[in-house]
Write a structure and sequence with these properties.
alpha+beta, five-stranded antiparallel beta sheet, 7 helices
């Protein structure tokens, strides 16, 4: 299989490392096949091939606990996994086809659209930290990895794949550690 439209090898490897949260990569050729099958279904204009998305691959993506989403170039959701729907308290079919602004409050939607515009300009993956409110009204700190999807000529970004990880607890621990270090420094100065 030819390399997929957006697959710069390092981008693809980074994306799958982030999904699996391991350093084990099954091999570039296999990853390119997976990416091509997945993205050809979501963005059929990227290649005229009619490739059906494997139910096994969809089950894999849906089984991941991290929210995964795909936007088109106009910031409409074209795919979300089950974790994304659960985070927002919505069925996935109630999200797919909606604009970012229909799911998020204006200030958050504007921030996400700005990230997507940045990806369109640089045409390479970016990682961002952001705040999102889940369906229970809890403020969540998320680390989001965004990967551009390019057309067949690699001349235009036609979408964005994202995966978000809740890092709220990690941030609390970091803050607690900083406070403890500060208190120890103060105690050492007093003694």
């Amino acid at each position: 299989i030819d390399s997929f439209v957006s697959a710069k090898e390092n981008n693809l490897i980074d994306f799958y490392k982030f999904i699996s949260n391991t350093q084990t990569i099954i091999g570039t050729v296999e990853l390119q096949k997976i990416e091509k099958i997945f993205l050809m279904k979501i963005f059929p204009e990227a290649n005229s091939s009619k490739i059906l998305l494997s139910k096994t691959f969809i089950n894999l993506i849906d089984s991941l606990r991290d929210p995964i989403f795909v936007y088109d170039k106009n910031n409409y959701f074209v795919y979300v996994n089950r974790a994304f729907g659960e985070f927002h308290g919505l069925a996935t079919d109630k999200i797919i086809g909606k604009h970012i602004g229909q799911i998020y409050p204006p200030e958050i939607a504007d921030s996400f659209i700005k990230n997507n515009e940045e990806i369109k300009k640089v045409s390479r993956p970016i990682q961002k930290e952001s705040y999102v409110i889940n369906h229970n009204g809890e403020l969540i700190t998320a680390s989001t990895f965004l990967l551009p999807i390019e057309n067949q000529d690699q001349t235009e970004v036609i979408g964005v794949i994202g995966i978000a990880r809740n890092i709220s607890e990690q941030k609390k621990l970091e803050k607690s550690n900083i406070e403890q270090e500060y208190n120890l420094l103060l105690m050492n100065e007093i003694l």
